[in-house]
Design brief:
Number of strands: 10
Radius of gyration: 18 Å
Shape: globular
Strand content: 15-25%
Helix content: 25-40%
Order of helices and strands: EHEHEHEHEEEHEHEHEH
Structural class: alpha/beta
């Protein structure tokens, strides 16, 4: 079980640099950030861009893996995203993971002036976006005509430092998204079942995650892969447990152990943010980072 963290892009770099460096010092496997234009209660607060933040983090660290959790088609195009990711992978020395999902109906969905896409439209676009991005990151030149995304002689030389490309961590729970994860993912990401967040129980959440894992295994079998080939990442803070696992090392180890039994190989916890849903004790956060992994090995 690997332990990672999520650092929201809310800090001016003079302060943010210290937080990313501290994540490396604490021994986290990966430090992710959200790739949004704005997000929930932070809409009227400071919020910086994900890829510039990760570029800065790459120059401020040397061992820590870095990534998005997650990027979506809501405001990105595969051609421009591929160029930025290849550059970021080079700057980091091959330490980038692309978390990617179909997007939602939040602020990003309409920021470019478009109508918010329906769930079907999001799935359609995601089903085009990821395969084209896969080609762009693995081939020197790509021409492809799609319904939603196209590329014409798009050049991406020299490609990624990581070969054949940087890894995709695909966030998905529906049948079409899980097929994308099974075919193109090196990892699968979930936050659990959002319908259980308000009124569900931790036991119901575990059951829902078990069912999601079963569906992922079926999708993998359909495309000729074994589910064991994919890492499975749980992004915490969105299950009925909320922040209860972050109240002590023992509480976190118990929570992580239950999910390790479901096959999860990585858990991502949020760095503390006062006056937010992630308002947790920084001292406990650091103790979890330094003490919990040994108990989960």
């Amino acid at each position: 079980m690997r332990l990672s963290t999520v650092i929201l892009p809310i800090h001016r770099w003079a302060e943010g640099q210290k937080i990313w460096q501290r994540a490396e010092d604490l021994g986290f496997h990966t430090a992710y950030t959200y790739d949004h234009l704005s997000w929930r209660s932070f809409r009227d607060r400071t919020w910086f861009g994900a890829l510039p933040t990760l570029t800065a983090a790459a120059t401020a660290t040397s061992r820590l893996r870095l990534g998005t959790l997650v990027t979506s088609p809501n405001f990105r195009h595969p051609v421009t995203l591929a160029k930025e990711l290849i550059s970021l992978d080079d700057i980091s020395g091959g330490r980038i993971t692309l978390g990617i999902g179909a997007g939602g109906s939040g602020f990003d969905a309409t920021a470019l002036g478009q109508e918010a896409w329906t769930p079907r439209e999001r799935a359609d676009r995601f089903g085009e976006f990821v395969p084209l991005l896969d080609r762009l990151l693995t081939e020197d030149a790509v021409t492809q005509q799609g319904t939603h995304y196209s590329a014409v002689e798009a050049r991406n030389i020299p490609g990624c430092v990581q070969r054949p490309r940087l890894p995709f961590a695909v966030a998905a729970t529906g049948p079409r998204g899980l097929k994308v994860a099974a075919r193109y993912g090196q990892a699968w990401v979930t936050t659990g079942d959002p319908k259980l967040y308000e009124t569900g129980t931790p036991e119901q959440s575990v059951g829902a995650l078990r069912e999601q894992s079963r569906k992922l295994a079926a999708a993998c079998e359909e495309v000729g892969r074994d589910i064991s080939e994919l890492d499975r990442i749980l992004l915490t803070g969105f299950t009925p447990d909320r922040n209860a696992p972050m109240q002590s090392v023992d509480a976190f180890v118990e929570f992580a152990g239950r999910h390790a039994e479901l096959g999860f190989t990585e858990i991502a916890i949020h760095a503390p943010i006062p006056d937010s849903d992630f308002d947790i004790d920084p001292a406990v956060y650091e103790r979890i980072a330094t003490e919990a992994p040994a108990q989960l090995s």
